[in-house]
Amino acid sequence: MMKKENALREAREYEAVHVPSVTGEERPAVHLSCGIGWLNDPNGFSSYRGEYHLFYQYYPYATHWGPMHWGHAKTKDFIRWERLPAALAPDTEADAAGCFSGSALALPDGRQLLVYTGVKNKSTEDGKSEVRQTQCVAFGDGMDYHKYEKNPVLDEHDVPEGGSAEDFRDPKVWCEPDGTISMVVGNRAADGSGQILFYQSRDGLHWEFVSILAKCENVYGKMWECPDFFALGDRQILIVSPQEMLAEGLEFHPGDNAIMLVGAFDREKKEFHRSYARAIDYGTDFYAPQTLLTEDGRRVMIGWMQNWASSSAVPAGARYFGEMTLPRELSYRNGRVLQQPVRELERYRGERVAYENVSVEREISLPGVEGRVLDMTVRVRPAVAEQPFRYFKIHVAKGGAFYTTIRYEAETQTMRVDRLHSGFPRDIVNSRDFLIQADNHSVKLRIVLDKHSLELFVGEGEQAAAFKLYTPQDARGISFEADGAAALIDVEKYELIAPQEERKA
Predict the structure, then answer these.
(1) How far apart are CA 452 and CA 471, in angstroms?
(2) Cβ 218 vs Cβ 191: under 8 Å
(3) Less crowded by CB within 10 Å, the N or C end of the chain?
(4) Which residues are designated catalytic?
């Protein structure tokens, strides 16, 4: 594939014409979407000059995957985003087939470092074409970036013996207390499964292989994409996105997953020792998350709110496809990683509607509890402690033939979200079940609806589940239903007010 000298300029010119034509009515209210075209993995989620930057895999010219660019946005509060011009385009020999996923870091000299996977095709001696994935860098000022003229900075010669030159991608960088830059990269090992490689540098240009940080050994899927590595509480967390997973009970689903490996880091040997693994999100639409550390010490994570199996499910007439989850605050408590929407979301709450001790037997609706852009907490418990209900349901985005159901079954302590009737006319994955721990069948559910999506947080964030919805916006109803015995519920619902969007594209 030939490099295209003016690819970035052309992408920015295209954005300038087409991004303003997509109205706010078409976009989610409090989730980040791409300006135009296609979005997938979050990249470069980082702090720079008092703001938080997010880049993302991006193809501006169509609502399907194409030669990868980097889209760009920034924020001060994780909810109100300023859309910036595209940051990278495939325009050099090292990245002629695409600028794939990576990360970003503020340097001591004031520049912002972007580290990304450059993809190119290589001709072999027998005339065949092979894919090569290498690690490349660019430097910039938060708006414009210049690629290092000697890219790549890591290639197949820097992969340990047996490692794949084709599956070598998604660098995540951070700065150590002594100024050393550390990096983890996903790779496929000789046994066909994933491994995470660990490198270090003093300047971002010259890298030394340090160790194989962690190995999959065919336990959790195959290739491990999009690694992230950080401390949380007194634990070390390794996030990976495994491909070709097999289902394991209700914890892991088949296909592409995003999982957290919880354990400890041997700093002398530079090895990660995992204690256990958990799914990060139990919905249908979550992949390739990245985290950053905020200036006030919070670990915040964001993910692509879609999955590859349904990535061709583009609604008719859509001019952009793809959005991110709400940024989520992570914490570690009682052996569990907890997730909650960033606290800044509460600044965008509008009218409050609240009810306490409402008895639910048959299906009921509550005046003022409706809408498609809202933040609602529902606390559910049996009306009589000795007589738990068989199941409890919440129907959202309800109207006519449309609805999505959140169901808790008391006997098995199983939560199910089912969007079969959400309105999309294709056979995609529509439901997921997952286990929760309910104390005497008392359950707390936080539900964030935002036009085209549902994010569910159970308890204090022990489980999270993200789903895309394809329901017409006039389906605004919400109802509650119990079966077998009565339930008591408390409901607190806030309308969410969309922030005014800024654009520089």
Answers:
(1) 7
(2) yes
(3) N
(4) 41
